[in-house]
Amino acid sequence: MSSANAVREDRLWQRHADMAKLGGTPKGGVNRQALSPEDAAARNLLMSWAKARGFSIFTDVMGNLFVQRAGIDANAAPVMSGSHMDSQPTGGRFDGMYGVLAAFEALEALEDAGIRTKRPVMAVAWTNEEGSRFQPGAMGSAVFAGTYKLDEMLQVKDWKGITLKDALAETLKAAPAPMRDGKPGFAVDSYVEAHIEQGPRLENENKTIGVVTAIQGSRRYIVEIDGEEAHAGTTPRSARKDAFAAATRLAAAMYATTTDADDTLRFTIGRVEVSPGSPNTVPGKVLFTIDMRHPDNAVLEEHEKALREIVATRAKPCPARIERVTNVAPTYFDPKVVDLVRAKTEALGLSHMDMPSGAGHDAMHLAKLCPAGMIFVPCERGISHNEIENATPADLAAGTRVLVEVLEALANR
Amino acid sequence: MSSANAVREDRLWQRHADMAKLGGTPKGGVNRQALSPEDAAARNLLMSWAKARGFSIFTDVMGNLFVQRAGIDANAAPVMSGSHMDSQPTGGRFDGMYGVLAAFEALEALEDAGIRTKRPVMAVAWTNEEGSRFQPGAMGSAVFAGTYKLDEMLQVKDWKGITLKDALAETLKAAPAPMRDGKPGFAVDSYVEAHIEQGPRLENENKTIGVVTAIQGSRRYIVEIDGEEAHAGTTPRSARKDAFAAATRLAAAMYATTTDADDTLRFTIGRVEVSPGSPNTVPGKVLFTIDMRHPDNAVLEEHEKALREIVATRAKPCPARIERVTNVAPTYFDPKVVDLVRAKTEALGLSHMDMPSGAGHDAMHLAKLCPAGMIFVPCERGISHNEIENATPADLAAGTRVLVEVLEALANR
């Protein structure tokens, strides 16, 4: 039996259903934010499955969780696959989790088919990919790849002031795993991540597999506007320093300047905090986040200049600042891995298309460490970061069949 | 000794300082929201002072707190003065509290001067004037005057889902007072409320006393916009239903349409909730409040039409609704009370001007029940609903001297 044929669609689907209960929301999505009790529960469930199959398990000081199926050559660097188990506050059940469960299914399929590989094959769940509770996102994989510094990340605080270090200690206490000594990061032969597309292209073009060639660049900003709290009934307009009126001027100008003709630039104001938030007090402070992405770094650079100009000129009489908090350049995946994904997809007779990823993924950090690639499967209407996010059992299994064939080939090089 | 001469500036100022400790903030303001533990502490402090002077105390089922100095005629309806002790979340130490402490100082001054009045004179602290925790504001006085229904108000919930009924029970347990039987409301001869201006006019015109002739009308609204949560990196602009982008269009149009030439209209967006509030998720829902005020009801009516038109036409592709939650018509105070305030101010040799109130006050509800009026004193730069709100001991005492003379005259009619 081939490894692809050993992939079991029903088992993979059931595992998604079991995981969706952890942080499950009434609308069918999940709220399983990084290093929450729900995240810990997901770690425990994955480890229980791994133990039942006799795979080895370990974690590192960033809380990245590894499940390994041994190879023939004990000294060979592993082939790795995975994604993340944390979600947005109102997230879907497939974003990230599919990549972890597809990797685990690949390990099980190799086991069930009795296939031995030269290199170990490893499934990984990276800590805090979403970046909604602790910023920046893709933190576990970035520390693993040496892109972010461990010590700095451990000091990052969520909006309640809890440090990542403390939240991580809680999580590892609730979901204990053998700890790998030393800093995160070790030699990896190659990395392939499966993920739902999170966009509408595969569905629109009626393709099952997206052969991912690149990830667009992304930058994140925080804009802060100071006003002056004042009584809503007595303070004349001319005497106001209304931070939300200023924020409205900035946001309106920003939406206008980011309206590109070919609709490739992604501009999002996602979090907005208006203080003190009383209906009859003129807002004294506003803070909002900007998420901006494009495949071309020069375009991002040009638009950043425009945003800075708007903040400098349109907030008057309120002082305003813009700070860039992350800047991730576009990633181009290894052509050998990309070609292998395409070849295995064709060999399995699945429809496919080459495409860049609109979203950032852990794979962009691993791509700095080793040859890397990604496999996309469709999601309904392209909707993600939403409780109604959906995908079909057949598409999820198809992506996993491609994945296991690719991993097997890489592990036997 | 006249009652005005018995007013003690130092005592009044010290009482403000003592009250400012209850819910005091690092910036020198107060966070003493309605029916909070801090509100209960303020009630206990006021009652301890009242007991020390031998005044009688009682509360009603809305938690309004009354302190009475007996009159000669036991059957005569009382003359009443007061305001509120609750604050904005980041409020000042004078808004409301001054009116309560000025009324209490008036009772003490009458006592110290050995003046007996025909009618009882009463100080009152009304429950929940601010309306920031429980909407609408001026709730205690409105129920007292029969404008709002007790049963409906008891069911009002704060943003955490706690009912006013439960919060009130907690408060009355923590600050127990003899309960007056029956529904709130009883015969009142007349009502005079002292308050800081909360606007810049007295300071700008260098006057000590504002003789308040009216209160402008105010309306409050909630605007709700539905979008669709989506991934910030993958969802093309054309496929988005971005609730905050729609909110920005509405807010920008609203700010533009409420820019009147004579700067009399007050338009404020004070509370803004953007969900789910994740930097990399397109907002799926926005809720914001509008507070709009003007002395002329017809102007408010006209602008409400414009706001409704904006919500109906500018939010596409997001469905949006606007709901009016309060509508308080302008109040005109009793000319006899207004004339008496002006006459007593002149007799004391204090500078003064007639003016309408920009803010709503408990007096607007009492004005439906009995002859009523208000006395304003300046506050620094007109700033209120702000922790830096400030007023001088001399101005506060001046206003109280006018108040006690007016109350004495009314109580001896």
TrEMBL record, chains A, B:
The alphabetized UniProt keywords are: Hydrolase, Metal-binding, Zinc
The Peptidase M20 dimerisation domain, residue ranges = 214-316
Listed GO MF terms: hydrolase activity, acting on carbon-nitrogen (but not peptide) bonds, in linear amidines; metal ion binding
- Domain of life assignment: Bacteria
Task: List positions binding allantoate.
Answer: 220, 280, 293
Q: Which Gene3D superfamilies match?
A: 3.30.70.360, Zn peptidases
The protein depicted here goes by the name N-carbamoyl-L-amino-acid hydrolase
Protein species of origin: Enhydrobacter aerosaccus
